[in-house]
Structures are given as structure tokens and as C-alpha cells.
Amino acid sequence: MRTLELFSGAGGLAKGLELSGFEHSAFVEFNKHACLSLAENFEASKIFFGDIKDFDLSDLEHIDVVAGGPPCQPFSLGGKHKAHQDNRDMFPYAIRAIEKLTPQAFVFENVKGLLRPTFSDYFEYIILRLTYPGFSVGSRVGWQEHLAQLRKIKTLPYVGVRYNVQFKLLNAADYGVPQTRERVVIVGVRADLEKDWSFPEATHSEDRLLWDMYVSGEYWKSHDIRPLNEYSSTDPVIQEKVFKLKEKYGFFEPTLLPWKTVRDTLKDVPSPCSTHCIPDHIFKSGARSYPGHTGSDYDWPSKTIKAGGHGVPGGENMIRYADGSIRYFTVFEAKRIQTFPDSFVIKGAWGEAMRQIGNAVPVELAKIIGCKLAATLNRQVIARRSSAR
To answer: Active-site residue numbers?
Structure first.
């Protein structure tokens, strides 16, 4: 199955889809550093470096899936919250690709802020446009008027392609990514395929990590560590969670796997200050801690690695050890946190590389979604072929 990757970034979503069996036909990306990264990890001849407005969709043949992360700054909790008034809102161009290519399915990822109540009308507009991509209006019609028409579309004559669209706020930690990263994922499957999409079930949980830390102690045992106070915690928030955990599960441990921690992920990685042969594992000095800028605890999933509109906010991109010491993640470590393969190349200096990593979809989450989507589409293709015999 062939994909078109829009707003590809460094290629986290693309790599996950590739690992789940998809073949990439083209990548569209505006940032030159991200394009250099893409060229290191995918077929360079398939990369379009430039504005998506200038990309010719007619050059493509038989695209099964359109995927990407439309720039999220208009909806970011840390941004200016302009949404549809922001010229960085690229959703209209993603919708144009769906309308022109009529793929079997699409996958888009965006920030949690997309679900803010202040954006509810525009988010409804996005979902309806993705559902009925062929229902367009003249350029002089504003999105509010278009939304009003879309809300009445069932009473209007519409013969274009239609998609069954679902969205869900996913926490990457619930799928084995060592990072508490919440993002909105939107998936649409073409309605004529008569196959509904459902999101993959979570495989990991905070409950199990807390259980393994403070009830069974399995977490510390697995790392050959003996906590100072055995398996208790002095943090009142943790104490309350563990109390409720014991009430909820009794003697039976939670069934899902534990969230993965920074320690789990980096336990075999040497210190960046030591002698090693890892080219992008370079110590960066200057890490500072202050209120609201405390880093990611070594024995917990990382905070969300972020890109930031004015540079990388270092609080989310630092490790905090049990003794209170801190340092910045190296590029290699940040790739691990985002579940990129160790061999994946991110071009650019530390700040630029971290921006690309922060913008990416965790590869493992993309792979899980891709496997579920591939299975859905393959089952439908088999059914259609067998019925045609």
C-alpha cells in the first residue's frame, strides 16, 4: 500500500508506517533541515522540499493512504491560539489532498489543543470537511458559512466520496512509548469500503508502573535498585494514588504492561561524557532548574519533548536524576524517547535536531496505528476480491 506523507517533518510517522508495511510515494516538507533528515533515512528522490501549495498532486498515482501532521502552532496550548485565522493552519491543504486523491484512508496527528472548547466549531469544520472532502464552496465563502452548510449536508445532494472519520486523544505512554505525550489522532476510512475503524487498545498503564514500583517492587528489582524506603514514597500525591490502586486491584496486579520510564529506555546508553562511538550522543552544558522548568524524572516516562515556537523549552528536554542533578537529553537519547531507531539520522545542531524530534510522531505509536490500519484495509481488499470471483 502506497502513502503520501504531508508535512513530513523528520519522518516519525513515516517511519512507523514504513515499519507497519506501507510504501512511501512522496514526502512534502517545507523545513530544509527536516528534508535533510528525510533524505538520510528515506529515498531522497521522493522528497519535495517546498511549500505544499506548490506541490502537484497530479504527479502521483494510486495513493492508498495520506498521512501527516498539519502544522499545529495555531492550536498549540503554548501558542497564540489563532486557529483558522493563522496562516500556518495547513488543514485546508490536507483536505485538498484527500479530495483530489480519494485514498482508501488517511491519518493525521495534531496537538491536544485542537480539542480546546474555543476551537470546537473549527474542529467540527475540519472533521466535516474530511468526511465530505468533495463538498467545496467558492473561495469567497468563509469557513463559518461553509460549516453551516456542512451541518445540513444530509439534506443536500452530495455524490462525492465520503469518509468515516474518527478521532481520539492518545497518550503515547499507553502504547509503550517512554513519554507522556498526548496528541489527537484523526483517522478516516473511505465509506465505500464498508469498514469501520477503531483505535488500537492501550497496552501499557500508569497503574501497572505504580504497582511495580510501590506494591510489588518489581520495577526496582528489575534494575537491581533498592529504594531508600523500600517500596514507599514520601510524595503525598503518589501515596494517594497507591492507596487507591490497592483498593482498586486488591491482590491482583493490573493486567496491562507498565509505562516505560526514562531509565528503562536509556539503561544501556553510556554517559555522554564517557568515551563512546555514538555520533549524536554529545553532552550539552547549561541545563538549569527552576520552578516550572524541572526536567523529566529518570524513573518516570519523559515529559513531552516539545519543539517550541521560539526555540526548545529545556525543561521538557532535561533528565532529572534521583539525587536532583539535571542535564539535557542528547539527540541520541531524545530519539530513544521518541522510539526512533538508533540508526535514524537527525540533521542539524542540537536545538534544530530537538525541534525536529519534538515535532515528530513517536515511531512506535505510528507503527501500532499503521499495523491496525493495514490490517483493516487488507481485510477489506481480501473480502472485495473474494466476492468478485
So the answer is: 72
